[in-house]
Amino acid sequence: AQYAGARSVPLLAGAPWLSAVPGAGGVPTLASLYGTQVGPQVAAARRAVQSATVAKILFTSGSTGAPKGVLNTHGMLCSAVQASGLLVSSPQLPVGLDWLPWHHTVGGNATLHGILREGGTLYIDDGRPTPSEVAKTIANIRDVRPTTLLSVPSALQMLADAMEVDDALREAFFSRLRRMTYAGASLPQEVWTRMQALAVRTLGRPIAFGSGYGTTETGPGISITHWASQGGGEIGLPMPGLTIKLVPFEDRYEVRVRGPNVTPGYLRRPDLTAAAFDEEQFYRVGDLVQFANPAQPEDGLRFAGRLSENFKLSNGSWVATGELRLALVEACQPLVTDLVIAAPDRHDIRLMIWVHPAERQRAGGSGDGELSPAAYAAIAARLAERLQVHNRSNSGNTHRVAAVRILHTPASIGAGETTDKGYVNQRGVLTGRAALVDGLYSAHPGPEVIRL
Q1: C-alpha 178: how far from its chain's center?
Q2: CA–CA separation, 342 vs 430, rounded Å?
Q3: pLDDT digits (tens, 9 = 90+) for 40-75
Q4: What superfamily in CATH does domain 311-451 come from?
Q5: How crowded is the C-beta side of 133, counted as CA atoms within 13 Å?
Q6: Pairing mode, strands 179-182 and 221-224
Q7: Is the distance from CB of 378 to CB of 364 less than 8 angstroms?
Q8: Pick from 307, 308, 309, 303: which is nearest to 291 by CA?
Q9: Cβ neighbours of 273 (radius 10 Å)
């Protein structure tokens, strides 16, 4: 019933539907199919499946515009999971624990298909990386003790917080773990360092801790650090069979990719499909990268932001949002989980910041919701100190922060401010909280705006 509205969407109205539970207005249930007799039509249907046959349609998160229906073919998905398996597979059967949704490419393709390829076991985590839901994840870790973990930076940060004060949880988490991978957003170096310190404390050695980079259009793999990563925003080298074309863009490179795991296009949108590929049929990812070590390209790439998120100040200077965001999150650790950089066509840079739940509580506030004036002031003072240190080394107007405010409420998935993968949609937040942005730049700002 909760998805009844989706059935009226023109692109989906003619599609066949199944429901996990009865009572969905005449829609057949999964259970009703279990008694179906296997006849010649099943064998015929199997024989009809080719590499180009569409296996599923996943809609993009909308972080760069309206969601688009990405055609995921059988060949595309098999190529993606095989490439990943060649780099990070294990001789032992994996045991996974995952909260990421299956309607997004990381949970529904990378995690699910990876476990299926290896013949492992996947436990569905009913927790989430939020103050109110993370306790479920912690309880599940104690029970499952996964051998592999693929998650987003916000979840890993909360997990590190919990393990630093709970030795039993730390022992359970690392008891069978062989590899951790993060995706969806850049991981602050401080979180990577803390997690490795916990691994050394438990195992006597660091854990294999890498990063994956991809999109819904690539099923999702583009690149991965299949070696002992050192953190710092590394996204590794291309997956086997995939070609990355780097197009110069100022001091960075725009990413374009071509290979067997790239989508043939978008559902009923030939216009968007044509615009998504260049003259050599490379898919335009829309992200920017730099070399981790320009003198040694084999050391891989480093994420440097989304092309669509960069903006100009009123003086015409470009702000490299992705790179600056990562630098500022690092500068404000352990206080900050994420931030938004404002604003296009303004005269300087100002920030809206989400504070880590543990730091909110340490200041006398709640883990989420409205902060008391006293808690707000305490956190603001610590933020100001860190940002002033940043400014002393970054005096240019495309890097220097002029003011900041703390956001009381988390980024909203429903309002398009964040994706299920944990990536903050900068444009969506600036649009949805336009009044707060105006207050940041007011000639007479309110008491919650901290000038630097």
Answers
A1: 22
A2: 7
A3: 988 898 899 999 999 999 988 665 567 789 999 999
A4: ANL, C-terminal domain (3.30.300.30)
A5: 9
A6: unpaired
A7: yes
A8: 303
A9: 16
